[in-house]
Amino acid sequence: MSTGTVATFEDSLERLEVGWTHTSSGELSTVLREVCDDPAVGVELPYDGVELPPWVNTDPTPADLRAANVGITAAGIAIADYGSVVVQGTPDGVEPVSLFGDLHVAVLRKSDIVSGMPEAFEWLGEEFRTGHDSAIIATGPSATADMGALVKGAHGPKDVHVVILDE
Amino acid sequence: MSKAREAKAAKIRQLMETEGDAVNTSTSGFNEGRYQAVQTLDDYEGLKAEARAIKEDAIERLPDLLDQLRETIEENGGTMYIADDAADANRYIREVCEDKDAERVVKSKSMTSEEIEVNDELEAADVDVVETDLGEWVLQVADEAPSHIVAPAIHKSREAIADLFNETFEPDEPLQTAEELTMFARQQLGELIEGADVGMTGANFITADTGTMALVTSEGNARKTAVVPDTHVAVAGVEKVVPAVEDLQPFIELIGKSGTGQNITSYISLLTPPVESPTVDFDDPDTPITENETDRDFHLVLIDNGRLDMRDDEQLRETLYCIRCSACSNVCANFQHVGGHAFGGETYSGGIGTGWEAGVEGLDSAAEFNDLCTGCSRCTTACPVNIDIPWINTVVRDRVNRGEVSEVDWLVDGLTPDEEPGGVSLQKRFFGNFETAAKVGSTFAPVSNWVTQTSVSRNLMERFLGIDARRELPSFQRETLKDWFDARDSHVQNPTRTAVLYPDVYTNHVQVERGKAAVRTLEALGVDVVVPDVRSSGRAPLSQGMIATAEDHAHDVYAGLAEYIDEGRDIVVIEPSDLAMFDNEYEKFLSEKSFQRLSDSSFEVMEYVFGLLENGAPTDALESTDSEEVAYHSHCQQRTLGLEGYTEAVLADLGYDVATSDVECCGMAGSFGYKSEYYELSMDVGSELQGQFQTDETRNRTVVASGTSCLEQLDSLLRRPSRHPVELIAPRR
Ligand code: SF4
User: Residue A100 and which of A60, A109, B3, B66 are 20 to 30 A apart at CA?
Assistant: First the structure.
């Protein structure tokens, strides 16, 4: 991963009108507080020494999902050319948590940004063959043009924010 | 006009009025988006070739891949069922629902389930079925059929949807904006998904190595459908299997760009069911989702329904490579004006729809509106897996011809010199044997022109041949190009090259002036030209689905030209649709070597002129200008072959100021615009070209066009006359 890849990723997010913030592990809580409205649900992040702040409900019920404004999850990788984040389905509920809120906040490590689809599929092939069983390549918010104009948030989130952890 | 033709014309007219505008806006937008989106790819052609190779290989190995997939799915803990036909699939799905005591099934993204009409089966068993794609749901509420394979409700305007919702649901405040309508639907469907017992989805691709299915969506409803209920039934055609996860990559990059012009759709779900995500049980809202019993059940129902027979059918096999992106519909000028409901068919419509309908439902269903394909070939470069869609349409047309037996057979058989069986209609035979008519027309010109233009003969022609009386007929010239050529002296001293000018039917009998201009141009550039007596290319019978006749022409044309090629002569072709025959369709008719030889030796006339000028032929031998303004319409097949740039370059080189039209098609495409059932559609499609050549910038420009049908269409659309570009540059003498 080069600086070029990160810049490409940011350009793609810009095009999709998706916001992003760079931060360090220590500053993560502050950044999340700035971008998230309550109530927030989340799934613990798989990064060493990184924890979600206490105001994030990490053990949501269906009622919590329905009421949530924000869902916070990790992203396995991100794809620079497309501005996509790859959200993996896990037993602790990354998929539903990323899906029901109006805003999805995806947290990922800078080193997990790959440049394009071929690299992404190399990674995905490996993941699928070694046990992970699902992943969503999510690019921007949910959208539809079926009602005569482009509207965001047809069934899924209306907005996406990406938090990039600079190690 | 005959009753059947009148009915067809009336249906087309009605669809143009009611659905045309909405369909036009969306499909033209999608198509424009495609041109832009594919430009972002470094190697678009390479990616398409890769996608095609994966599909070719997968269909070749399909039985093995299905075995492998079954093992994988079972190892994963799911069940795979291959259904022979619709009834078999429906029975299986109903039984799964009955086992679960399901009261409600939510559905997302499944054209295949439309094909088998599973909703009817489930509803008869008292299961409530809800479409959750907004477009599909609109159609379910309205009780209508999809008109497009990717955006099923594009024929409905926002106003029509608002009326529908306000009438059906009587909300407190009437709904109006797209935002209001979407949020209302999200709310309604959200609740229906929360209480569903079974989620049913389609699958765009399924990988044999891991059992992963890919779902290409934008709305997020497929994700909810797959993750909320504990039972997931995926329904897809057997052709959706690819070998490995990595094989998905080119398709993921191509599908959104090709279809709606999106770089990528919002969500590509890659699910290996039964998935690990916890189910979300809204009946038990207060238990954390991770504590829920997650005992997921997964059924993959793969449907044959004619597909394995298509695999064995050499001509229809390519249809199975289709990834249902809709590019072929969006690029189709006819589709843009009438939409999928005019293309007929039970489930599939538009470009490749005929192939699917022929394979899945049978010829009757495919025959209905198969004629709407004019063979313009614009879809072949749009298709991300390089399917020769017009060829599939031609094959189906041929089979339909052979299937029908008409009563006038005994009459026509003796009169028309073609290779076809009895069932071909009189109209098709007339257009298919146009070469014969043209010969007679020239021999008796100008009397033949006077006679054909009397109202008595126009009426007869309309009644028996379905030639619309509103369309001006070509005027045959007494002196053919060949006669003119033979009667003059043509000496080029020390020729730089030697060539054959191919005398296509139109140039020889009707557009003789462009033929003369081509000869003068080539000679002025130092080329020794001959105009031999060679048969017509077979384009005319081919477009009527008369393949055997077309093949017969191909052999004769090759035989007529082979000796000249041996002599080292180049073959120069004026009519782009004939060049397209030499470059494409002849591959199906001639031996590989013969095809290559002819194809390699053949050039479009302006392409050839470009080559001569590049190689040092004197520009000042041609007619130049210091500022003449030209409006140029290339030709659909010429553009598909990538040749329009040569005409532009040559004209620019000679000082002309060129504005080129970018509409997909002039709306004429050979015989299409003559047929009374299509005349109005042809003019409607043509209105876009007319518009482009009547702006402030273009209205006074000299009009030039490369194809015969384009020239004829332009003559009926504009008051200014139009000419072939070679007539502009030819030395006057
Ligand atoms: S035939 Fe090609 S262009 Fe048409 S829908 Fe299928 S893949 Fe897309």
Answer: A109
